[in-house]
Design brief:
By secondary structure, the protein is α+β, with helices and mostly antiparallel strands. It contains ten helices and 15 strands. The longest helix has 21 residues. The mean pLDDT is 92. It binds 1,6-di-O-phosphono-alpha-D-fructofuranose (AFP).
Length: 332
């Protein structure tokens, strides 16, 4: 049997790719892994909590308030980042404003992290895959001071690392530091992540498209024409593509990353800026997609080039296999 590589071993072995690495980023990735195991454990018990012990948001048998799982996840990650001391501040999709940590160690830290603690949380009740998405930047404010909004509002090109954890049929952590994409599967019996998807590559082309077609009447003519192309016999495979839409971005993205496909959440009149958040969802997944050979745009611009102007900024989102995104953009 070949030797298994744990996430920790892998992170340590990659530290030498960064000549001036101090180990801070490696420790931060380990903090993420730790928090994700806690959340994974909570996610696995969600049905039990809801249907046997009392609904989340309601009271448990001891009469205590049950917290919603997205709040539980948010707190688990924030606690890990606060205790770890590797970031000076965080921004989370769950909170209106960013958080600048007060401790001296945190103020001397070099990184900030932005994350969506539990993406696709409306799927929790129906036992469908959900995930955590994260994005790491070097701070732009001086070391030894508190994190600022400018640390958070950096374009995606400045990401040092990004990744996601998918709480699916197994728990999988996928991340990049800009040198390819690797995936690790959690062995829940021993609480350890093992390298299971080395050097992930997104197929250049695919035949899966993921879009909420309930919004079809609101789509612009170019997108409707692209979807008609996907559904026709005129595409490059000579038969209609398959529509696959979970409504959990991480899960939809992950499937398309492995099998080849495109995920689309465009701007529509009811959501003129799109639905998905640039900082917590689109930038990290765009970084991973590009590292795996795919593409991500908002319909006009490369996602990673967009200069954010606010924390919870939304954008239209086209992400996936290179040739499919190019085709959807009308480039072919
Ligand atoms: P929730 O976290 O509220 O479930 O939102 C999930 C999400 O941000 C993303 O994961 C989905 O792809 C997208 O929204 C689904 O949106 P629609 O329900 O409008 O299709």
């Amino acid at each position: 049997m070949s030797k298994l590589t744990t996430l920790h071993e892998f992170i340590v072995s990659k530290q030498k790719d960064f000549p001036f690495a101090t180990g801070e980023l490696s420790r931060l990735l380990n903090d993420i892994a730790l928090a994700s195991k806690i959340v994974s454990n909570d996610v696995r018990k969600a049905g039990l909590v809801d249907h046997i012990l009392g609904a989340q948001g309601g009271q448990n048998v001891q009469g205590e308030e049950q917290q919603k799982l997205d709040v539980v996840a948010d707190e688990a990650f924030i606690r890990a980042f606060k205790n770890g001391g590797e970031v000076c501040g965080i921004a989370s999709e769950e909170n209106d404003d960013f958080l600048a940590f007060e401790s001296e160690q945190a103020q001397n830290a070099n990184y900030v992290i932005l994350f969506d603690p539990l993406d696709g949380s409306s799927n929790i009740d129906v036992n469908v895959s959900i995930g955590t998405i994260f994005s790491i930047y070097r701070r732009v404010s001086p070391q030894g001071t508190k994190a600022t909004l400018a640390d958070m509002l950096q374009p995606g090109t400045q990401q040092v690392a990004a990744g996601y954890v998918l709480y699916g049929s197994s728990t999988l952590l996928v991340y990049t530091t800009g040198k390819g994409v690797n995936g690790f599967t959690l062995d829940p019996s021993i609480g350890e992540y093992f390298l299971s998807h080395p050097d992930m590559k997104m197929p250049e082309n695919g035949r899966l498209y993921s879009v909420n077609e309930g919004n079809l009447n609101d789509f612009d003519p170019q997108l409707r024409a692209y979807l008609a192309y996907c559904q026709s016999n005129e595409n490059q495979t000579g038969k209609p593509y398959s529509g696959r839409y979970i409504g959990s971005l991480v899960a939809d993205f992950h499937r398309n990353l492995i099998k080849g496909g495109i995920y689309i959440y465009p701007t529509v009149p009811s959501a003129p800026n799109g639905r998905l958040r640039l900082l917590y969802e689109c930038n990290p997944l765009a970084f991973i997609a590009e590292q795996a050979g795919g593409l991500a745009t908002d319909g006009q611009r490369r996602i990673l080039d967009i200069q954010p102007t606010e924390l919870h900024q939304r954008v239209g989102f086209y992400i996936g296999s290179k040739l499919m995104v190019e085709k959807a953009m009308g480039l072919h």
